[in-house]
Amino acid sequence: RNFWLSLDQPMKADIEVQDLDLGIWLDLLTDGKVIASGKLSGRVPVTLNEKDAKQPVFVGDGAVLETKKPGKLQFRSAEWAGDLLEKWDSGFRTDPIKRELRQSVVEALQNFNYSSIRFDYDEKTDIMRVAVRGEGKNRQGKVVKFDPNINVKHFSSLINMAYQLNNRVNRDLDNLFGD
Questions:
Q1: Angle, helices 96-109/78-88, rounded to nearest 10 degrees
Q2: Taking CA 82 as the corner, what is the angle to CA 81 and CA 84, rounded to the nearest 5 degrees?
Q3: CB count, 10 Å around CB of 22?
Q4: Among candidates 147, 131, 73, which has minimal Cα distance to 81?
Q5: Banded model confidence at residue 154, pLDDT cuts 50, 70, 90
Q6: By 3-state DSSP, what share of the chain in percent is helix, strand and coil, each rounded to 5?
């Protein structure tokens, strides 16, 4: 739901999240490169600062979102999935054994069934840890289990960039069509 606040001082709130569409969220975070099904629920402590502040939205320690039921993930681009694997773990580029596994994992990520996904935020390090448990199948039909732990660094900066972009789009639409 949309809501507006007039802030002249920071405001703290714990946002309870229920059934946030994982597909919409991952579509936004990956610029449409990942399709997903499933719902996220949990708690996100936030501080909303003045809208002109350098960081108007601040996610607090202990933010947790997780799936309650299994679902599907599909990476649209094998090349992008491979690049992402190498970013998550440089061993997929440098280790001979992991390089050999890379193609099977990339194929599995294009048709991946997860049993759980959990997002945990650590305020001190500004890292959102994403723990995924699941499996996919490669082209030969072989099941590939893949349980990555992904660290999204500079998470608060990403959130604030998205927030500021949304504000600019809303402002431009208001200017174009009126309030």
A1: 130
A2: 65
A3: 22
A4: 73
A5: confident
A6: 35, 35, 30
Spatial distance between the Cα atoms of 17 and 36, rounded to a whole number of angstroms: 18
Q: Which amino acid is at 122?
A: D
**Per-residue pLDDT reduced to its tens digit, 84-143:** 888 878 888 899 998 888 888 888 888 899 999 999 988 888 888 889 999 988 888 888
Q: Which amino acid is at 128?
A: M
Cα–Cα distance, 61 to 77 (Å, whole number): 33
CB-based burial of residue 40 (10 Å sphere; 0-12 exposed, 13-18 middle, 19+ buried)? buried
Question: Is the separation of the CB atoms in 64 and 42 below 8 Å?
Answer: yes
Question: pTM of the predicted model, to two decimals?
Answer: 0.71
Closest CA to 98 of 27, 28, 146, 30: 146
- Type of residue found at 172: D
